[in-house]
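go over this record:
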Amino acid sequence: MFKFFFKKNFCDGWDNFFFIVLSNLIPIALTIGAFFAVKFTSAVNQYLPNVTVALCFAVITLSVFSWGANAAALADFETPTFSNYFSTLKYVWKIGLLYGLFLAVAMFILRVAVAYYLSFYLKNGGYLYLIITALLCWFAIICVLALQWFIPLYFLQDDNGFIKCLKKSFIIFFDNAGFSVEVFLLNVLILALTFITVGIFPGVNGVLLSCTNALRLRLYKYDWLEEHPEFLTDRDKRSEVPWDELLADDMESLGERKLSSFIFPWK
């Protein structure tokens, strides 16, 4: 299943290279604006930059959140458009800003907590503080692995609000821990390539496309389990999901893609 996901995700990214590049200019511009906003507020008050960072992070997250509709369209073999992006922005701005503020506050609290307990350990010793620090770090890792499903869940399923997306993100992670790690590692490679290209490609929108493609395919498992409830109570049998059968239509839609088709798409 992961092999097909990787192939489809690469094809979606390559076929929509210029659209993704242009889309990434929005969060890049917002990030540059955030840098100057923090620089300006730091000259006004020493505590004000913390608020500015949180607000700017929320706005940047909203821009990525709004692109989730195009990511879902690409994952479903549809054509992405900028009109879709701006129309989506009108109805997701509340949950997008809330999600961004949630992440900003969570990262701030976690950073303070880790620094607090780690400083206690370095000053006074005692393995209790070290254990607490390690637990906090593991909690942060689990949150990162789970929350990569948050935005895709909102656009791939109906009637998912903030709490539902949050709850389902962790459910999907714990039920697909290995797959979540694999997708995360792929996203790390995407971010490394993004760093090399100064955020232009694949960029944060490329990461979102990766998560959306992965979740869309993974959700086939739950549709299949609804039709075969006898597998729900047996975790050993749940690994017997017939992926070749479930992915047959997507494989046919994607078709055979040879190396020459990426270099010479007109052939």
In short: The longest helix spans residues 82-124. The chain has 15 helices and no strands. Residues 23 and 205 are 7 Å apart (CA to CA).
